[in-house]
From TrEMBL:
The chain crosses the membrane at residues 198-217, 229-248, 282-301, 313-333. One of its GO terms (molecular function) is magnesium ion transmembrane transporter activity. Gene3D superfamilies: Glutaredoxin. InterPro entries: OligosaccharylTrfase_OST3/OST6, Thioredoxin-like_sf. The keyword Transport applies. Accessory component of the STT3B-containing form of the oligosaccharyltransferase (OST) complex. OST exists in two different complex forms which contain common core subunits RPN1, RPN2, OST48, OST4, DAD1 and TMEM258, either STT3A or STT3B as catalytic subunits, and form-specific accessory subunits. OST can form stable complexes with the Sec61 complex or with both the Sec61 and TRAP complexes. The association of TUSC3 or MAGT1 with the STT3B-containing complex seems to be mutually exclusvice. Pathway: Protein modification; protein glycosylation. It comes from the Eukaryota. The lineage of its organism: Eukaryota, Metazoa, Chordata, Craniata, Vertebrata. This is Tumor suppressor candidate 3 isoform X2. Residues 1-41 form the signal peptide. It is a multi-pass membrane protein.
Length: 347
Protein backbone atom coordinates (compact mmCIF):
# COMPACT_ATOMS: atom_id res chain seq x y z
CA UNK A 1 0.00 0.00 0.00
CA UNK A 2 2.82 2.38 0.86
CA UNK A 3 4.68 1.71 -2.39
CA UNK A 4 1.51 2.13 -4.47
CA UNK A 5 0.67 5.50 -2.98
CA UNK A 6 4.18 6.87 -2.58
CA UNK A 7 4.89 10.52 -3.50
CA UNK A 8 7.29 9.51 -6.33
CA UNK A 9 4.63 7.41 -8.02
CA UNK A 10 2.10 10.23 -7.79
CA UNK A 11 4.60 12.75 -9.26
CA UNK A 12 5.29 10.46 -12.30
CA UNK A 13 1.55 10.00 -12.96
CA UNK A 14 1.05 13.75 -12.80
CA UNK A 15 3.79 14.34 -15.39
CA UNK A 16 2.21 11.82 -17.79
CA UNK A 17 -1.23 13.47 -17.51
CA UNK A 18 0.21 16.93 -18.20
CA UNK A 19 1.29 15.77 -21.70
CA UNK A 20 -2.42 15.68 -22.83
CA UNK A 21 -4.02 19.15 -23.28
CA UNK A 22 -7.25 19.86 -21.52
CA UNK A 23 -10.29 19.01 -23.74
CA UNK A 24 -8.27 16.94 -26.28
CA UNK A 25 -10.55 13.91 -26.10
CA UNK A 26 -13.70 15.79 -27.24
CA UNK A 27 -11.69 17.40 -30.05
CA UNK A 28 -10.42 14.03 -31.29
CA UNK A 29 -13.91 12.62 -31.08
CA UNK A 30 -15.30 15.54 -33.08
CA UNK A 31 -12.56 15.14 -35.71
CA UNK A 32 -13.32 11.44 -36.00
CA UNK A 33 -17.05 12.12 -36.45
CA UNK A 34 -16.28 14.76 -39.07
CA UNK A 35 -14.12 12.35 -41.06
CA UNK A 36 -16.84 9.73 -40.90
CA UNK A 37 -19.42 12.28 -42.07
CA UNK A 38 -17.24 13.49 -44.96
CA UNK A 39 -16.55 9.94 -46.01
CA UNK A 40 -20.25 9.17 -45.87
CA UNK A 41 -21.09 12.31 -47.90
CA UNK A 42 -18.52 11.40 -50.54
CA UNK A 43 -19.89 7.89 -50.72
CA UNK A 44 -23.40 9.28 -51.06
CA UNK A 45 -22.31 11.52 -53.96
CA UNK A 46 -20.63 8.60 -55.70
CA UNK A 47 -23.77 6.49 -55.31
CA UNK A 48 -25.98 9.32 -56.60
CA UNK A 49 -23.69 9.86 -59.62
CA UNK A 50 -23.67 6.15 -60.37
CA UNK A 51 -27.49 6.07 -60.24
CA UNK A 52 -27.76 9.04 -62.61
CA UNK A 53 -25.31 7.57 -65.11
CA UNK A 54 -27.02 4.19 -64.92
CA UNK A 55 -30.39 5.79 -65.60
CA UNK A 56 -29.04 7.78 -68.55
CA UNK A 57 -27.42 4.69 -70.03
CA UNK A 58 -30.70 2.83 -69.70
CA UNK A 59 -32.55 5.60 -71.55
CA UNK A 60 -29.84 5.69 -74.22
CA UNK A 61 -30.22 1.96 -74.80
CA UNK A 62 -33.85 2.58 -75.78
CA UNK A 63 -33.48 5.82 -77.76
CA UNK A 64 -30.58 8.01 -78.76
CA UNK A 65 -32.37 11.22 -77.66
CA UNK A 66 -34.43 11.25 -74.49
CA UNK A 67 -37.01 13.93 -73.75
CA UNK A 68 -36.86 15.87 -70.50
CA UNK A 69 -39.34 17.88 -68.51
CA UNK A 70 -38.48 20.41 -65.82
CA UNK A 71 -37.87 17.87 -63.04
CA UNK A 72 -35.61 15.64 -65.13
CA UNK A 73 -33.71 18.66 -66.44
CA UNK A 74 -32.95 19.92 -62.95
CA UNK A 75 -32.00 16.46 -61.68
CA UNK A 76 -29.81 15.18 -64.52
CA UNK A 77 -28.44 18.41 -66.01
CA UNK A 78 -28.47 21.26 -63.49
CA UNK A 79 -27.90 19.44 -60.19
CA UNK A 80 -24.47 18.02 -59.26
CA UNK A 81 -22.75 15.62 -59.18
CA UNK A 82 -22.15 15.17 -62.91
CA UNK A 83 -19.17 13.75 -64.79
CA UNK A 84 -20.75 13.68 -68.26
CA UNK A 85 -21.53 16.25 -70.95
CA UNK A 86 -25.12 16.78 -72.03
CA UNK A 87 -26.21 18.20 -75.39
CA UNK A 88 -29.73 19.64 -75.16
CA UNK A 89 -31.96 20.75 -77.99
CA UNK A 90 -34.58 23.27 -76.90
CA UNK A 91 -37.38 23.08 -79.42
CA UNK A 92 -41.11 23.39 -80.10
CA UNK A 93 -42.29 20.40 -82.10
CA UNK A 94 -46.00 20.51 -81.34
CA UNK A 95 -48.09 21.11 -84.50
CA UNK A 96 -49.78 24.17 -83.01
CA UNK A 97 -46.38 25.90 -82.73
CA UNK A 98 -45.92 25.70 -86.52
CA UNK A 99 -42.14 25.63 -86.24
CA UNK A 100 -40.95 24.08 -89.49
CA UNK A 101 -37.34 24.90 -88.65
CA UNK A 102 -37.66 22.88 -85.44
CA UNK A 103 -38.70 19.81 -87.41
CA UNK A 104 -35.82 20.20 -89.85
CA UNK A 105 -33.31 20.72 -87.04
CA UNK A 106 -34.73 17.73 -85.19
CA UNK A 107 -34.05 15.48 -88.18
CA UNK A 108 -30.39 16.53 -88.26
CA UNK A 109 -30.13 16.20 -84.48
CA UNK A 110 -31.55 12.68 -84.70
CA UNK A 111 -28.98 11.71 -87.33
CA UNK A 112 -26.18 13.02 -85.11
CA UNK A 113 -27.43 11.28 -81.98
CA UNK A 114 -27.88 7.98 -83.83
CA UNK A 115 -24.36 8.27 -85.23
CA UNK A 116 -23.02 8.58 -81.67
CA UNK A 117 -25.28 5.90 -80.19
CA UNK A 118 -24.29 3.23 -82.71
CA UNK A 119 -20.60 4.13 -83.02
CA UNK A 120 -17.83 2.03 -81.51
CA UNK A 121 -16.68 5.01 -79.42
CA UNK A 122 -20.01 5.33 -77.58
CA UNK A 123 -19.55 5.81 -73.82
CA UNK A 124 -21.20 7.42 -70.80
CA UNK A 125 -19.33 10.73 -71.21
CA UNK A 126 -21.82 12.28 -73.65
CA UNK A 127 -25.61 12.16 -73.89
CA UNK A 128 -28.22 13.79 -76.11
CA UNK A 129 -31.53 15.08 -74.80
CA UNK A 130 -34.38 17.37 -75.80
CA UNK A 131 -36.64 19.83 -73.99
CA UNK A 132 -39.86 20.71 -75.79
CA UNK A 133 -41.46 24.02 -74.92
CA UNK A 134 -44.83 22.43 -74.16
CA UNK A 135 -43.20 19.87 -71.84
CA UNK A 136 -40.69 22.13 -70.10
CA UNK A 137 -41.97 25.71 -70.15
CA UNK A 138 -40.37 26.30 -66.75
CA UNK A 139 -36.97 25.34 -68.19
CA UNK A 140 -37.30 27.95 -70.96
CA UNK A 141 -38.24 30.55 -68.35
CA UNK A 142 -35.38 29.55 -66.07
CA UNK A 143 -32.85 29.97 -68.90
CA UNK A 144 -34.52 33.16 -70.23
CA UNK A 145 -34.86 31.43 -73.59
CA UNK A 146 -37.34 32.87 -76.08
CA UNK A 147 -36.42 31.21 -79.37
CA UNK A 148 -36.31 27.70 -80.77
CA UNK A 149 -34.57 25.63 -81.89
CA UNK A 150 -31.49 26.19 -79.71
CA UNK A 151 -28.64 23.77 -79.02
CA UNK A 152 -26.69 23.99 -75.74
CA UNK A 153 -23.83 22.05 -74.21
CA UNK A 154 -23.85 21.52 -70.44
CA UNK A 155 -20.29 20.60 -69.34
CA UNK A 156 -19.49 18.09 -66.58
CA UNK A 157 -18.44 20.89 -64.23
CA UNK A 158 -19.47 24.50 -63.98
CA UNK A 159 -22.02 26.49 -65.93
CA UNK A 160 -22.28 26.73 -69.71
CA UNK A 161 -20.23 29.49 -71.29
CA UNK A 162 -21.13 31.58 -74.31
CA UNK A 163 -19.42 29.13 -76.67
CA UNK A 164 -21.58 26.32 -75.26
CA UNK A 165 -24.55 27.73 -77.21
CA UNK A 166 -24.48 26.66 -80.85
CA UNK A 167 -24.55 29.55 -83.36
CA UNK A 168 -27.36 28.17 -85.47
CA UNK A 169 -28.08 31.41 -87.35
CA UNK A 170 -24.54 31.67 -88.70
CA UNK A 171 -23.55 28.01 -89.14
CA UNK A 172 -26.84 26.22 -89.79
CA UNK A 173 -27.99 23.01 -88.14
CA UNK A 174 -26.48 20.28 -90.35
CA UNK A 175 -25.42 17.20 -88.38
CA UNK A 176 -21.82 17.60 -89.54
CA UNK A 177 -21.64 21.16 -88.20
CA UNK A 178 -23.14 20.09 -84.88
CA UNK A 179 -20.58 17.27 -84.64
CA UNK A 180 -17.74 19.73 -85.21
CA UNK A 181 -19.08 22.05 -82.51
CA UNK A 182 -19.39 19.13 -80.05
CA UNK A 183 -15.81 18.08 -80.78
CA UNK A 184 -14.63 21.60 -79.93
CA UNK A 185 -16.54 21.61 -76.63
CA UNK A 186 -16.06 18.02 -75.43
CA UNK A 187 -13.15 16.48 -77.41
CA UNK A 188 -15.61 13.77 -78.46
CA UNK A 189 -15.42 13.22 -82.21
CA UNK A 190 -18.54 11.84 -83.86
CA UNK A 191 -18.49 10.49 -87.38
CA UNK A 192 -21.86 11.26 -88.91
CA UNK A 193 -23.56 8.37 -90.70
CA UNK A 194 -26.55 9.40 -92.75
CA UNK A 195 -29.20 6.83 -93.65
CA UNK A 196 -29.14 5.87 -97.32
CA UNK A 197 -31.22 8.20 -99.45
CA UNK A 198 -32.15 6.83 -102.84
CA UNK A 199 -34.34 9.74 -103.91
CA UNK A 200 -31.46 11.38 -105.83
CA UNK A 201 -30.62 8.11 -107.60
CA UNK A 202 -34.26 7.50 -108.48
CA UNK A 203 -34.68 11.07 -109.76
CA UNK A 204 -31.54 10.73 -111.91
CA UNK A 205 -32.73 7.40 -113.29
CA UNK A 206 -36.12 8.90 -114.16
CA UNK A 207 -34.45 11.86 -115.86
CA UNK A 208 -32.18 9.61 -117.91
CA UNK A 209 -35.14 7.43 -118.83
CA UNK A 210 -37.16 10.48 -119.85
CA UNK A 211 -34.37 11.90 -122.00
CA UNK A 212 -33.67 8.49 -123.51
CA UNK A 213 -37.34 7.97 -124.32
CA UNK A 214 -37.58 11.42 -125.89
CA UNK A 215 -34.53 10.79 -128.04
CA UNK A 216 -35.95 7.44 -129.12
CA UNK A 217 -39.29 8.96 -130.11
CA UNK A 218 -37.51 11.73 -132.04
CA UNK A 219 -34.81 9.49 -133.47
CA UNK A 220 -35.67 10.52 -137.01
CA UNK A 221 -35.50 14.24 -136.21
CA UNK A 222 -32.79 15.22 -133.75
CA UNK A 223 -32.25 18.76 -134.93
CA UNK A 224 -33.50 20.12 -131.59
CA UNK A 225 -30.27 18.86 -130.01
CA UNK A 226 -28.46 21.62 -131.87
CA UNK A 227 -30.90 24.28 -130.66
CA UNK A 228 -28.72 27.02 -129.17
CA UNK A 229 -31.61 28.64 -127.32
CA UNK A 230 -32.46 25.44 -125.48
CA UNK A 231 -28.89 24.86 -124.36
CA UNK A 232 -28.61 28.51 -123.33
CA UNK A 233 -31.69 28.17 -121.09
CA UNK A 234 -30.27 25.03 -119.45
CA UNK A 235 -26.95 26.79 -118.83
CA UNK A 236 -28.67 29.81 -117.33
CA UNK A 237 -30.67 27.64 -114.94
CA UNK A 238 -27.45 26.05 -113.67
CA UNK A 239 -25.76 29.45 -113.33
CA UNK A 240 -28.74 30.90 -111.42
CA UNK A 241 -28.80 27.94 -109.02
CA UNK A 242 -25.08 28.20 -108.28
CA UNK A 243 -24.87 32.00 -107.93
CA UNK A 244 -27.91 32.15 -105.63
CA UNK A 245 -26.22 29.98 -102.99
CA UNK A 246 -27.93 26.63 -103.46
CA UNK A 247 -24.68 24.76 -102.84
CA UNK A 248 -24.16 26.71 -99.59
CA UNK A 249 -27.66 25.69 -98.51
CA UNK A 250 -26.89 22.07 -99.28
CA UNK A 251 -23.68 22.14 -97.22
CA UNK A 252 -24.80 24.26 -94.25
CA UNK A 253 -28.48 23.33 -94.05
CA UNK A 254 -29.85 26.77 -93.00
CA UNK A 255 -33.51 27.32 -92.07
CA UNK A 256 -35.95 28.44 -94.77
CA UNK A 257 -36.75 31.68 -92.91
CA UNK A 258 -36.71 33.10 -89.38
CA UNK A 259 -39.76 34.02 -87.33
CA UNK A 260 -39.28 36.53 -84.53
CA UNK A 261 -40.82 35.01 -81.36
CA UNK A 262 -41.64 38.44 -79.93
CA UNK A 263 -43.66 40.01 -82.73
CA UNK A 264 -44.16 37.06 -85.10
CA UNK A 265 -42.44 38.87 -87.98
CA UNK A 266 -40.90 36.54 -90.58
CA UNK A 267 -37.48 37.43 -92.04
CA UNK A 268 -36.55 36.03 -95.44
CA UNK A 269 -33.23 37.92 -95.73
CA UNK A 270 -30.50 37.18 -93.18
CA UNK A 271 -29.02 40.32 -91.64
CA UNK A 272 -25.42 39.04 -91.73
CA UNK A 273 -23.08 38.65 -94.69
CA UNK A 274 -21.88 35.34 -93.21
CA UNK A 275 -25.19 33.49 -93.54
CA UNK A 276 -28.39 33.25 -95.53
CA UNK A 277 -31.83 31.64 -95.46
CA UNK A 278 -33.12 29.22 -98.09
CA UNK A 279 -35.83 31.73 -99.02
CA UNK A 280 -33.12 34.33 -99.57
CA UNK A 281 -31.40 32.17 -102.20
CA UNK A 282 -34.74 31.77 -103.99
CA UNK A 283 -35.22 35.56 -104.00
CA UNK A 284 -31.72 36.13 -105.41
CA UNK A 285 -32.36 33.50 -108.10
CA UNK A 286 -35.54 35.29 -109.23
CA UNK A 287 -33.79 38.69 -109.25
CA UNK A 288 -30.89 37.38 -111.34
CA UNK A 289 -33.32 35.74 -113.75
CA UNK A 290 -35.28 39.00 -114.12
CA UNK A 291 -32.11 41.01 -114.78
CA UNK A 292 -30.98 38.46 -117.36
CA UNK A 293 -34.37 38.58 -119.05
CA UNK A 294 -34.06 42.35 -119.28
CA UNK A 295 -30.64 42.04 -120.89
CA UNK A 296 -32.00 39.51 -123.40
CA UNK A 297 -34.83 41.88 -124.33
CA UNK A 298 -32.38 44.76 -124.79
CA UNK A 299 -30.27 42.57 -127.06
CA UNK A 300 -33.36 41.49 -128.97
CA UNK A 301 -34.45 45.09 -129.48
CA UNK A 302 -31.01 46.07 -130.78
CA UNK A 303 -30.43 43.15 -133.16
CA UNK A 304 -33.90 42.34 -134.53
CA UNK A 305 -35.14 43.85 -137.77
CA UNK A 306 -38.84 44.08 -136.93
CA UNK A 307 -41.14 47.03 -136.51
CA UNK A 308 -39.44 50.03 -134.91
CA UNK A 309 -42.32 50.71 -132.49
CA UNK A 310 -42.31 47.11 -131.28
CA UNK A 311 -38.55 47.20 -130.86
CA UNK A 312 -38.86 50.40 -128.84
CA UNK A 313 -41.40 48.79 -126.49
CA UNK A 314 -39.17 45.73 -126.06
CA UNK A 315 -36.23 48.01 -125.29
CA UNK A 316 -38.16 49.95 -122.65
CA UNK A 317 -39.43 46.76 -120.99
CA UNK A 318 -35.93 45.28 -120.94
CA UNK A 319 -34.45 48.48 -119.56
CA UNK A 320 -37.12 48.65 -116.86
CA UNK A 321 -36.43 45.05 -115.79
CA UNK A 322 -32.68 45.67 -115.54
CA UNK A 323 -32.97 48.97 -113.67
CA UNK A 324 -35.66 47.93 -111.16
CA UNK A 325 -34.44 44.44 -110.27
CA UNK A 326 -30.77 45.47 -110.16
CA UNK A 327 -31.74 48.23 -107.72
CA UNK A 328 -33.59 45.65 -105.62
CA UNK A 329 -30.58 43.32 -105.70
CA UNK A 330 -28.28 46.17 -104.68
CA UNK A 331 -30.52 47.10 -101.75
CA UNK A 332 -30.34 43.51 -100.45
CA UNK A 333 -26.57 43.66 -100.75
CA UNK A 334 -26.54 46.89 -98.71
CA UNK A 335 -28.69 45.32 -95.98
CA UNK A 336 -26.24 42.43 -95.57
CA UNK A 337 -22.96 44.31 -95.98
CA UNK A 338 -23.50 47.15 -93.54
CA UNK A 339 -21.65 50.30 -94.47
CA UNK A 340 -21.77 49.72 -98.23
CA UNK A 341 -22.22 53.30 -99.51
CA UNK A 342 -23.84 52.84 -102.92
CA UNK A 343 -27.50 52.47 -103.87
CA UNK A 344 -29.67 52.89 -106.94
CA UNK A 345 -33.38 53.85 -106.87
CA UNK A 346 -34.17 51.59 -103.87
CA UNK A 347 -32.40 52.12 -100.53
Amino acid sequence: MGARGSPSRRRQAGRRLRYLPTGSFPFLLLLLLLCIQLGGGQKKKENLLAEKVEQLMEWSSRRSIFRMNGDKFRKFIKAPPRNYSMIVMFTALQPQRQCSVCRQANEEYQILANSWRYSSAFCNKLFFSMVDYDEGTDVFQQLNMNSAPTFMHFPPKGRPKRADTFDLQRIGFAAEQLAKWIADRTDVHIRVFRPPNYSGTIALALLVSLVGGLLYLRRNNLEFIYNKTGWAMVSLCIVFAMTSGQMWNHIRGPPYAHKNPHNGQVSYIHGSSQAQFVAESHIILVLNAAITMGMVLLNEAATSKGDVGKRRIICLVGLGLVVFFFSFLLSIFRSKYHGYPYSFLIK
